[in-house]
Write a structure and sequence with these properties.
7 strands, 31% helix, single chain, 21% strand, alpha/beta
Length: 235
């Protein structure tokens, strides 16, 4: 018999164990092993929304933290724009790929770690960016996610993200299942879809700068697929 729940962290870890998919480094290592798979975001191109924010404002450099960086495509775009970047991913395979892509690129550090437990060189960042991490988190981990933002995002800084969009009808987008049902199923079903109002409620303590569907982009330009939602918020 185990009666070990004595804190919020204990409870969160217990709830983590109810889900059988996409919560371990082993799962993501298997996902990233075959680099030739036709996975849209395996390309080396940055998100079109991030590129636009860097070119046209309001992102103006400083320190950036990327959550769930995968093979590093957005981290490298941020470094090219003059940011000092710390990029985190749970998968050693993804981080190894990102470091290969980066080569000797200055200003970017890759960390293989849990985003909620990583040790970082800075307390706060001018930009926190997430391309596809939030929608793979179980509902209870939104609490941890908001606490991370509160701790890491500097006053006056920006938070940007892309996530699965609800209502697209695209098979590649996430599920629109109520949170409670996810626990009954013991599965996130590949990822959770959000609509704009979901994000406005979740990040209600921040100021909305832009919230829209991602633009579809040609394969040789920027990364853009219409089944994702993009958002930028300021603190």
């Amino acid at each position: 018999m185990n009666r070990g729940v004595r804190s919020v962290d204990d409870l969160l870890r217990l709830l983590d164990g109810l889900f059988d998919d996409r919560s371990t480094s082993d799962w993501w290592d298997r996902f990233y092993t075959d680099r030739d798979r036709p996975v849209p975001f395996f390309v080396s191109l940055p998100d079109e929304n991030l590129d636009g924010w860097l070119r046209d404002g309001p992102l103006r450099g400083g320190r950036a933290l990327e959550l769930g960086c995968g093979p590093g495509r957005n981290a490298l775009r941020l470094a090219a724009a003059g940011y000092e970047v710390d990029a985190i991913d749970l998968s050693p395979t993804a981080i190894a790929w990102a470091r290969e892509r980066a080569g000797e690129t200055p200003g970017v550090r890759f960390h293989c770690a849990d985003i909620f437990a990583v040790e970082l060189p800075h307390e706060t960042y001018d930009l926190v960016y997430d391309s596809g991490c939030l929608h793979h988190l179980a509902p209870h981990r939104r609490i941890s996610y908001l606490a991370l933002l509160d701790r890491r995002l500097a006053p006056g800084g920006h938070f940007g993200l892309t996530c699965f969009a609800a209502g697209t009808g695209d098979a590649n987008s996430g599920v629109e299942i109520p949170d409670a049902q996810l626990y009954r199923d013991g599965s996130l079903h590949g990822g959770l879809a959000y609509d704009p109002d979901d994000l406005r409620r979740l990040f209600g303590s921040y100021t909305e700068v832009e919230l829209r569907a991602m633009n579809g982009e040609p394969a040789d330009g920027l990364f853009g697929v219409p089944f994702l939602l993009t958002g930028l918020f300021s603190r």
